[in-house]
Each structure stands twice: as structure tokens, then as C-alpha cells.
Amino acid sequence: MILPKIDGLTAESIAIGFDRFEKGDPYPFGEPSKELEACAREIWDQYPPLNELTDDQIEESVWSCDHDTLNGFIHMAMFLRVQPSTLNFITNVAHKHGLAVFDPQFNSFQDTYNSYTFNTNLVPSVILQIASFLNNLFKIKSKHNEGNPTE
User: Fold this and answer.
1) Same domain, 102 and 123
2) What proportions of the chain, in percent to the nearest 5, are helix, strand and coil?
3) Which one of 2, 55, 68, 147 is CB 3.0 to 4.6 Å from 74, fit for a cystine?
4) Domain limits at 25?
5) pTM greater than 0.85 (yes/no)
6) 38 and 85 share a domain?
């Protein structure tokens, strides 16, 4: 999430801002700024928004949904396959434009992403169960094929 640097901005104040946004406040962190618009343009030049991509390009995009700057902040939803270099690029661009970067997954402000590890505590257990099932299925299939290399 990219938003203006506001005095006293904390994880708690961001949560309060989102609550206000959900209750109808169109600008919980202030109106869209030229800095936010410039930041978005620079990021989208490198990683175009979904509405500018073909169906084939969407499959390779870092974005899991479109986003905009209409409400004075950018809430970015990205796929888990996103590399730290992508996150660092976005963070550096935001900081260059004097903006803050808040990662709600880690409930913290970000300066750099040395590594990006997915916080499994935030994943619904059913997804983890599916991943475990597929992992076990792959192991079973691999053992089955060890004795029969033609499959």
C-alpha cells in the first residue's frame, strides 16, 4: 500500500483510515496528490495495470487486481510469485516521490525487501491443506514413477 507520509502515521491509524474509507470517507489519507499520481505512473510504466494488458499478458502480471489513486492511496494486490526485486522497485519509487509504503501482510512500513517470505499465519487453513495435499500427491506420483520411467 502506498500512501502519503502523514505525521503520526502508524499501523493503527491506517486501520482507522480503512474503517473510515469503508464507511464512506473517500479520502481517509487525504486527496490524491501529484506525488501519488507520478509514483503510480512510474510503477505502471514498469508493471502495467491489468486493464492495459492482453489476456496472455495478464497471466504474467505481478498484479492480482487493478488499483487506482482516486482515493489518495494505492492498495496494491499482488501475486505470491512476486520477486523481492519487484517489491524493492515499487518501494524505491514510492520513497523517491516522498510517499510511505505499508505492507498490511506484515503490518509494517517497508524500506526494502531483502527477501519476501509469505506469512502463512495469514493464509486460510484450507489453502494450506490444499497445498499439503498437492505436495503429498506429487510425492506419491514421483514414487510411483521411480520404477516405471516411461510414465
Assistant:
1) no
2) 50, 10, 45
3) 2
4) 2-116
5) no
6) yes
